[in-house]
Design brief:
CATH superfamily of the domain at 64-201: Vaccinia Virus protein VP39
Mean pLDDT: 95
Structural class: alpha/beta
Strand content: 25-35%
Order of helices and strands: HHEEHEHEHEEHEEE
Helix content: 25-40%
Low-confidence stretches: none
CATH class of the domain at 64-201: Alpha Beta
Number of strands: 9
Radius of gyration: 16 Å
Length: 211
């Protein structure tokens, strides 16, 4: 169930759902998703579905990973990406295959350690990981990023993330209005933040503190 044929079926499904960026599709084809889930679930790794990874968290549905990643690539060259919510590290691995510098934070220490080990085993050395509260952004406040991606739903965007987004930068995140979650894309301009609502989604909530 982790064969190339199984992966190719997933890629065709992503294409059928509108993922058109060939770079994203190629990375999704080659990143070994089965290494980021429990061994008991590895036979389901290339299904287009979210799967549990423990600690009330999930590995995102491949379509959502591809869709969010594609959105990060739409607005010109990118040097650095900040990910809020490392989780198991799968989205992080996808990003690391597309962008020169990836920074990622995770509030749950056990997940942080697991992701760090998996990503090192894949020899992805352009990633910096921190165990910290994602509401505070990257621990060094002087850092700014071309792109920010959030893998947990917020009811309002933490102001520190807006501050850590470079001018012209883009943030993709799930927003929870109390009834539905919508994947949002905001672009930081000289006039302020330009918002674009994209698709309905379902993510775990962005929580404060460390776990």
């Amino acid at each position: 169930m982790t064969s190339q044929r199984t992966r190719d079926r997933l890629i065709q499904r992503l294409k059928d759902q509108g993922i058109s960026n060939e770079l994203v599709l190629d990375v999704m084809r080659h990143v070994p998703r089965h290494l980021f889930v429990d061994e008991a679930l590895s036979h389901r790794a290339y299904e287009d579905t979210a799967l549990p990874i423990g600690y009330s968290q999930t590995i995102s549905q491949p379509f959502i990973v591809a869709f969010m990643t594609q959105a990060l690539l739409e607005d010109g060259p990118v040097n650095s990406v900040l990910e809020i919510g490392t989780g198991c590290g799968y989205q992080t691995a996808v990003l690391a295959n597309l962008f020169p510098q990836v920074y990622s934070v995770e509030r749950i220490e056990a997940l942080h350690k697991q992701a760090k080990q998996r990503l090192a085993e894949l020899e992805l050395f352009n990633i910096q990981l921190r165990h910290t509260d994602g509401n505070g952004g990257w621990p060094n406040p002087s850092y700014q990023f071309d792109r920010i991606i959030m893998t947990a739903a917020c009811t309002e965007v933490p102001e520190v993330l807006v501050q850590q987004l470079l001018p012209g930068g883009v943030m993709v995140f799930p927003f929870d209005d109390g009834h539905d979650q919508t994947l949002m894309k905001i672009t930081k301009t000289e006039q302020g933040m330009v918002e674009e609502a994209m698709i309905k989604v379902s993510f775990v909530p962005l929580l404060p503190g460390l776990g």
